[in-house]
Amino acid sequence: MRKGFDVRRQPGFTAIAMGCFILLYLPIILLVAYSFNAGESIAIWEGFSWRWYASAWENEQVKDATIRSLILAASSSAVATTAAVLAALATTRSKPWRGQTVVFAMVNQPLMVPEIVTAVSLLIVFAVVKSFTGYTGLGYLILAHSAFCIPFAYMPVRARLQGMDLSLEQAGSDLYGTPLQVFRHITLPQLWPGILAGAMLAFVISLDDVVITEFVKSAGQDTLPTYMLGQLRRVVTPEINAISTALLAISVIMVTAFFFINKTRK
Amino acid sequence: MSDMALSDPAPSPETRARRERRSRWLLLTPALVILSLAASGPLLVVVIYSFLTPGDYGGVEWQFSLDPWFNVVAERDFFTEELKLADAHLLVFWRSIKLSLMTAILCLIVGFPTAYFIATRPAHRRDMWMLLIMIPFWTNLLIRTFAIMELIRNQGTINTLLMASGVIDEPIQMLYTEFSVLVGMTYVYLPLMILPIYASMERLDFNLVEAGYDLYATRLQVLRRIIFPLVKPGVVAGSILVFVPCLGAYVTPRVLGGGKQLMLGNLIELQFGQLRNWPLGAALALTLLAVVMVALVFYVRAIGREGEHNA
Prior knowledge:
The complex is a heterodimer.
Chain A: H1 13-34, H2 51-58, H3 60-91, H4 100-112, H5 115-133, H6 139-162, H7 166-174, H8 179-208, H9 211-216, H10 224-231, H11 238-263
Helix pairs in contact in A: 2-11, 3-6, 3-8, 4-6, 6-8, 7-8, 8-11
Chain B: H1 13-49, E1 53-54, E2 60-61, H2 67-73, E3 74-76, E4 83-85, H3 87-119, H4 123-138, H5 141-152, H6 157-164, H7 178-202, H8 206-214, H9 219-247, H10 251-257, H11 264-272, H12 278-306
Antiparallel strand pairs in B: 1-2, 3-4
């Protein structure tokens, strides 16, 4: 082999890759940077200030939407994770069974069907339910979010279950542990990182959702993303950058944590 | 939960099988109830709605009609009853398919070398590089779209820079064009291309590449004849993973297309909003779903060829 010849090198590939990373991060970095702009522009830098964070903090609509977003994400991820853990326990580590295909299709539906299709289908159904019951609360959004969060909570739990050592459970029941005891003291502690990862993923997915929320929400039920979508048509001030930065921070923290929790599996 | 699907030594095999079946469905109940109420059930209702007559103020009249499906591609002239193609819809279909394909191609051009770059890093560094790809992907799609908007709008970063440096006098109108939608979708969906290509690339056996060079292949020949064929399933999977969400995109064309560059998702919304034709909206939504399902069949075949663990 020629000296210094690297078989892995392809000309230009490294440059494109570097360009790709810059492209991925540059717009986000600019967005974050201008949230600290002292001026009203999102393109001309006029010095550092916290004023847009202060103005977002004092904005009643933003406060209202933030609280709603957090309540919605917390309750949907709790519901979705509970349902997903139970479903994962039922469907993992067993021989093929009747109805398996239908169940998997249902669990994965939110991943396959375009969001806009789900959104209009929920609009149709909830419009009927709303007119019959008169109830216009947060329940519809929690139900809708729980549904599309289920596959995201299901995946890490299932992966964890599949990688789990069966002999420990076997030993537990050999020592006369009841199935419930075996679950509580052996399965659950091992499953915990998967559950946590699933719940965090579900939380982020719910927090970020725009399309389904936009179609399901009743009047005055803006979440942070739908509020932002509504604001984009107007003259944009760095206040929206400040809100974006706060949302980004939550997502990045959660995703990074998810990544490390998931890594401990190996 | 008293009889989990765990081994229970005493009872007969039939009893065990029956118990296992019962506990399985019991455990599945919460998930299936939620999903049928807010996913599969509503989808069936959409099918029904696509065969009804539109109500005057939105909603539907319960009267069977094939018009919605007919109206997806054709329309009857209001006065002359003459049949003609629904140009407006076909234009949107065409734009959706065109932009989705172009996005997939752009993502491939940028994503393939990037995946290759990551796959050729030392093993312990690859996860960190992939995390760098994943972080933008898991952050809010609206915010990422908005970041692009700030970059390319008339008072945005690019135009401000160009005008300050004297290259141009007037801002270049980039926002609210097909170009801006294309850039936005490429930016937003790029990680979906890199992920499956990287998964294929990671298992690439570089001894084969070395063998190629030993036989006097050029770098381009190695790329075309050895690397590309071996990672092709990943390329196909990535292209479909990008194509599918583009086709159903709603937020990106709405924000960056500004109501001018409608894509399928926006056309569907329009029927439920301003145009108050719910049955047509339902038929359009199902048309979109059908195209997506066809693409997903190809996807499953692409990853199936490479083995299950790559999903």
